[in-house]
Amino acid sequence: MRFFSDNAAPVCPQVMQAMAGVNQIDTAYDGDRWSKSLDARFSELFECPVRALWVPSGTAANALALAALCPPHGGVVCHRDAHIQNDECGAPEFYTHGAKLMIAEGNGAKLTPDGITDVIDAIANDVHRIQPHAISITNATEYGLVYAPDEVAAIGALARARGLGLHMDGARFANAVAHLDCHPADVTWRAGVDVLSFGFVKNGAMSAEALIFFDTALADLTLYRRKRAGLLLSKGRYLAAQLLAMLEGGLWLANARAANAGAALIARAAGARLVHPVQANEIFLRATPEEAALLRARGFDFYDWAPGEIRLVTSWDQSAEAIRPLADAVAAL
Amino acid sequence: MRFFSDNAAPVCPQVMQAMAGVNQIDTAYDGDRWSKSLDARFSELFECPVRALWVPSGTAANALALAALCPPHGGVVCHRDAHIQNDECGAPEFYTHGAKLMIAEGNGAKLTPDGITDVIDAIANDVHRIQPHAISITNATEYGLVYAPDEVAAIGALARARGLGLHMDGARFANAVAHLDCHPADVTWRAGVDVLSFGFVKNGAMSAEALIFFDTALADLTLYRRKRAGLLLSKGRYLAAQLLAMLEGGLWLANARAANAGAALIARAAGARLVHPVQANEIFLRATPEEAALLRARGFDFYDWAPGEIRLVTSWDQSAEAIRPLADAVAAL
Amino acid sequence: MRFFSDNAAPVCPQVMQAMAGVNQIDTAYDGDRWSKSLDARFSELFECPVRALWVPSGTAANALALAALCPPHGGVVCHRDAHIQNDECGAPEFYTHGAKLMIAEGNGAKLTPDGITDVIDAIANDVHRIQPHAISITNATEYGLVYAPDEVAAIGALARARGLGLHMDGARFANAVAHLDCHPADVTWRAGVDVLSFGFVKNGAMSAEALIFFDTALADLTLYRRKRAGLLLSKGRYLAAQLLAMLEGGLWLANARAANAGAALIARAAGARLVHPVQANEIFLRATPEEAALLRARGFDFYDWAPGEIRLVTSWDQSAEAIRPLADAVAAL
Amino acid sequence: MRFFSDNAAPVCPQVMQAMAGVNQIDTAYDGDRWSKSLDARFSELFECPVRALWVPSGTAANALALAALCPPHGGVVCHRDAHIQNDECGAPEFYTHGAKLMIAEGNGAKLTPDGITDVIDAIANDVHRIQPHAISITNATEYGLVYAPDEVAAIGALARARGLGLHMDGARFANAVAHLDCHPADVTWRAGVDVLSFGFVKNGAMSAEALIFFDTALADLTLYRRKRAGLLLSKGRYLAAQLLAMLEGGLWLANARAANAGAALIARAAGARLVHPVQANEIFLRATPEEAALLRARGFDFYDWAPGEIRLVTSWDQSAEAIRPLADAVAAL
After folding, report:
1. Percent of chain B at pLDDT exceeding 70
2. Res. C108: pLDDT tops 90
């Protein structure tokens, strides 16, 4: 059974159905009625006027967001273990035309105001040094930890004080909100986030993420950058439809809750083996190679994260019943 | 009725079905069995070993192709009316890191060896001038003309003689092959084409184009560029499935033939109004504003191409019966 | 005798002396007293507050100027024969990260409002097309013609009306001002120019051009771009000294007048052979290959510009006496 | 007295004289006889065929070198304290079009094979990770330490084994060779270095560094990149003349020996205060703010490097007599 990555999960039936529902003649690119409705629908969700653009991947969303916040000669503070630093083959550098990621430290891939100031206060304010222009945080983090609204707000306040933009990589934003049980606004614009990569693909969509601009002035130029990057798909209505289906009836939140619940089940079974608290849908636990082999022999598929450490990721489609065997197997180790 | 663009057509049922057919758990990115089969399937189609990468848009395919053929300090010869020059918001410049498109002339957006040498022979061979590194042609062209194998071969021979790469923008490659009734190899690698953007989205697919490397050595670096551009979708199997469905039973060719047939019907009706011979699925015809208004009043939707000139595009899903009313209306003008 | 290019002329004695005069210990980069005085000295010259940066080449000045005026996804309107289009190996594309030069036409490499609107009015205002962000004109032009203040002002008014920045490539700005006998402000900021590449190297300096920002807000970011491009030389005082020496006592204008006077002498001798009116220090004249060979046989060095056309360039160091033999030889053809 | 930076030193009389010696009419750019002689002169110096290009700054030399060794989607391993990482405002990222600097550790800003493999072995070989393409080391390092031939050779062997290019930032290469008392070939190409930024500006030149390609195949493309960056100065003969003057009679080595000797004098006085062994012309020593103030009060100018640590740099023009007072003052602290 797959616990390798939520990327590998199937697409949610409601999303498949919504795509079939727009399989008709309509205007190309983002001129169709569904694409045009995204601003309104996401503004409603976030209770403030936003600009919402579909993009076909989370890497594209992140890179476009950073390009909107940071000039080529600037820097973006992020965590050493951030996806933008390690897993996007330099997409931020490509889209920003060479901006530099400035590495900060923090437990569980979480940044703190102190960790950020450690980095930026060490940068002399002269033209020889790349100057910071933005901060990027991931919620939930790469280790499945969740920033609470006040934690984001503290970083948001620092960003404003220093004149930096704030981006949130929300590849698992839904899982974070599900864990926090807060309004999505509380952990984004109300806490100072300027741009959000709102992930849907890991959570039931097929090929559509939402790039949300709370600083709406940044959206217009991004339309050009999206086109220029080959990301403005001509049949954009199929992407819009995915997002609308995920918003409909709170599907995005329900799916995330399901994935989180599965992770919680495993976490309880893992107990002291846990490397990080489990707050979203990722579980990092200590396991010897022998133990890992044992789990694999029982049909569970997952990632060897580090020596003596494995990563399990649950998905929207895995019920408690489906997960129980893994939980039991982990408990029995 | 829509004659605005083949981009606006619906997705072909076989493609929708194929996507549903891969809606299961599988490896992410391009590690799934369908993505992995593309090299073999396209090699079979082209009767030579090729590397075939899915990409979500034609603009992305073109830009990645040019980046593989031309360094940042180089130039790409293309027609003044080429899509890469006019309709991609600078994607070639973005992906190549600033290479220059070198504008050549030719009737019906078609390049000729003479038109190309006019451009490149005027470039002094010194470091002050950007040097040409590649040629890009579009088949069928932006005006619906089709390069025959010997026309491509003449350009291919020139390219080889001058040490230039040859890219074919095949957004409507299927329509070209349908018109030529030749083997797809005849008008590509056998004629000297190094890289082909093989379009499927205008022809019945949803969000997958194929980037075909006949010069297979260029493919490996492109894998990095594709990822770095945010184009390596995590659920790549849904893109692979689209391409496989389009290849299955020659659907790509059948669809293109249908679209071409519709265009031929209108072309016959248009007679002397035609601005260009109709070879693929685009019809450019002379029409006064009043005539255009008349057609629109009868429910036909299309593009005003230039003063006194309109563009009609037929699609895979339009039967002869569906098109007859437009043909009649055009004849009656 | 050299009439090949003013680039090949020696450095003016006053400039050599000024460089010797700063050959002492001082702060590095642009922190020295001479570099720091540039803003004030050029503000005085232009009778308005400007920011003035030394850069080591005209290509660098132009490219930095365009990068300040145009985003990566934008376009710059320039003449088909502009230096930035033909002779800088893509420096504008490199510094702007891929902006596009949009080619306009005009006699003698001179743009007009009509020639510019022909280009920009043809660009649909959508994300598929690169949008114009700036205009670049060269004064004196690549063919030695000079824009008068009202000609620049007409373009400046157009630029403002369309929200475009206006750059002047002034590689031979001094020659233009000498010809116009106007205040340098009249043909720059008073006529709507935002950024000027003020050339000194062709006019007696060694390795220092001035990049003048009339729109001073653009200067700060350019400081970072200059450093990032490796153009912030550590011993910058030797560049500042060159510029200060050229300003001292109006040397820049005196040198340009000398060069222009030489050109006028040849122009009078050339009479009906002239391809363009001679207004600055370049002479383009019709000459058969035999005539060209004859001139060369008499020791005159110059450039074959086009079939049946040669280019002669006079320099600051060539006195009327030195030039007379060439004038006589031309007259005798 | 200045111990702030060798950048602030005057230009060597022989260099000034050489520049005056080429103040005559000659071909522009790098077509003059002096520029053309550089390949031969540096090939002689290094006892192997090299390509030698003048560039006006060390930052430009480094960035061009890295662009020759690393594609936009690649990475360059360098030390956390490398000049390319901290002091060039992102020039490597600009010239490489967004390659990533991969930070390695090592005492005194010195890399070791182990420090490098720690970095590159942690990078999974897939398209999600930026892959290393080059290593860049600085000799003498940013802390004044010198890599001996065998130390470079160990890194060179690693580079070859892993298919990586090897760049040496030799801003103070002369000081390194002076310390090692070895042949310049021993610590460069014989040890596996592909490209060397050979610094002259800190050592008596004005505005010319040499970019040396031991892998001569890389030089041709760099000619285009140099032009494209605005670095191909039109009066290039004044740069060539500087380099030739520095080579003449081993001036480069004599100057470096003088600077090193001064540093050694201070090092002996500093004794246990030294933070790093003094091998070239930089001295890092522990000093309280009061002690630093005391030195400054006596007229010595220098850089506060870190809390409780100051940096003193000696230059080619400072004789033992000139330095003695500082040495005495340090000893008396």
Report:
1. 100
2. yes
Q: Closest by alpha carbon to D109, among D40, D39, D171, D185?
A: D171
Q: What is the percent of chain A where pLDDT is above 70?
A: 100
- C9, C25, C232 member nearest D8 (Cβ): C25
Alpha-carbon distance A93 to A72, whole Å? Answer: 8
pLDDT of residue A18: 98
The CATH number of domain A14-250 is 3.40.640.10? yes
Fold for A252-331, please state it.
Aspartate Aminotransferase, domain 1 (3.90.1150)
Tell me how far apart the alpha carbons of residues A294 and A285 are, in angstroms, rounded to a whole number.
14
Q: Do A230 and B231 contact (CB within 8 A), yes or no? A: yes
Tokens of D214: 């031991």
Name every residue whose Cβ is closer than 8 Å to that of residue D202 and which is 6 or more positions away in sequence.
C234, D5, D6, D7, D9, D58, D171, D172, D315
Interatomic CA distance for residues A240 and A248, integer angstroms: 12
Distance, CA of D223 to chain centre: 21
Say which CATH class C252-332 falls into. alpha beta
Alpha-carbon distance B130 to nearest alpha carbon in chain D (angstroms) = 8
Sequence-distant (≥ 6) Cβ neighbours of residue A274 within 8 angstroms: A267, A283, A284, A285, A286
The answer to whether B51 and B43 are in contact (CB under 8 A) is no
Evaluate whether A191 touches A168 at the Cβ level (below 8 Å): no
Integer Cα distance of C197 and C66 in angstroms: 10
Distance CA C297, CA C288 (A): 14
| Nearest chain A alpha carbon to D75 | A90
Angle formed at CA A25 by CA A23 and CA A27, multiple of 5 degrees: 115
The ipTM value here is 0.97
- CATH number for the segment(s) B13-250: 3.40.640.10
List the single residue in B86, B94, B100 with the smallest CB-CB distance to C129: B86
pLDDT in tens, D85-108: 999 999 999 999 999 999 999 999
- Burial bucket for residue A290 (CB in 10 Å: 0-12, 13-18, 19+): exposed
Nearest CA in chain B to D128: B227
Picking from A167, A156, A138, the residue whose alpha carbon sits closest to that of residue A65 is A167
Task: Kindly list the distances between the CA atom of residue D262 and the CA atoms of A63, D274, D277, D325, in Å, as whole numbers in the listed order.
Answer: 50, 15, 14, 11
Chain A residue nearest residue B2, CA to CA: A25
Q: Is C35 on the interface with A (CB under 8 A)?
A: no
* 3-class secondary-structure state, position A288: coil
CA distance A241 to A247: 10
Distance CA D31, CA D237 (A): 8
